[in-house]
Amino acid sequence: MRDLFLTLFVFGMLPVAVFQPYVGVYLWAWISYMNPHRLTWSFAYDFRFNFFVAVTTIAGIILFWKKTSKIPRCFTTYLLFGFLFWTTVSSYFSINYPWTHWQQLVKIYAMIVATFLVIDSRKKITVLVAIITLSVGFFGVKGGIFTITTGGNFQVVGPARSFFSDNNMFALAELMVVPMFLFLRSESKSFWLRLSFLVMSMLSALSIVGSYSRGGLVGLVVIVSYFWLRSKAKIRIAAIIFFLVPIVFNLMAERWQERMISMTEKFEIPQELTELFTPKELFDVSNSPFPDVYKTEEEESEPSFTSDSSFRGRLDAWELAWLVALDRPFYGGGFNTFHYNVFRRYLPNVQRRAAHSLYFQVLGEHGFVGFGFWMLMHIAAYRVRNSIIRMTRKVPDLLWASELARYIGISMIGYYVGGVFLGLAYFDLPLHYISILIILRVIVKRELAKIKVPPKEPTMFPYVPGQAKGLPIS
After folding, report:
1. Where in the chain are the domains?
2. CA torsion sign, 282 to 288 to 293 to 297?
3. What is the pLDDT of residues 30-47, one digit of tens each?
């Protein structure tokens, strides 16, 4: 029944997407982030709904090209597409088969271009943000309720075969929507709607705790600390935090407590890691300073709550990224570098298959040049966020834009912090947030241009070029 309902709904909306392409962007965002087909049980489970949505939306944009907006020309946009260009170059010189991952990134960029072309007003951008937040947050709310009802005895994960199916990826995705629930709350006028968004935000935050992701927990602590520092009611919020933290800690299972406590005990940089960066050991990959680690794919995918294999795996992945970047500084290893074959080539005594850090993931796969593109893109996006806040500071009608920019900035902070230990460099949500910030600045500039500047008061002695100021005109 779910399969039939989902199929009829999606295909019923396709004609609307042709004549109103922004509806296609909404539909694409909903399917990409919520993965509703993964909630079915039959033919719709593996059906490529987004392919038909994307083709229909692009067809609508082409048919109604004159009604679309232009892609904003700014430094951030150039960096955004510059990163795509460099990933194409690094894929051409890849040491492992990269094209499946490259095609996935190109599809994300195709719909980002569609977003640039059809999302051009406050209403459209707010609806898009709401769809993204509710789609990802659906699993956060569900996971938060699951954590409460099970006492934290089981891990919370995302939808199967999605960008954030893994518990760590799920935690990072939820970190990026928890602040956006508060933006939707600020945009709502109904008391019950505001209360609903607040509860959703809290449940999503609880689902991060229930994911057993230590990186996600660190990111959540940073976001909560940021909110506390920016708040005017610091004493009240501190009291609530000190009241809730012991309750949540005691609610969770004993193995969760052991896993979180072990984070402080094991986060010590071993001497072997410092020796890795000495000139003598730099290119000698045959004698890895790390102990031999052999794990099967099944063992690698299973969570470990008592051993330090998780942290050791991160060190192995970071070592691989550093060695590949040194060996291929311009191109890196290309997509799919963190594969068993590449590990055997650079670290023969280690068998892993994950990046465990979005920073090392970009560095290892696209070299120092690609990493530079990626870092500059995010720095430029944060400057766009700051410029929006600065331009709208004294304009009450554009307060919503300032709030949206602030909350997107907080979401990105969660991504940057949580991503230190989690490899999700090509997740479409941060790229979508960057495109939304670029569009938002265009909207703000357009609205500011409409505001009439009050005329200056006439002076007693108007200035005439070539004549001294303040002297009467003869």
Report:
1. 136-257, 265-353
2. positive
3. 999 998 888 888 888 888
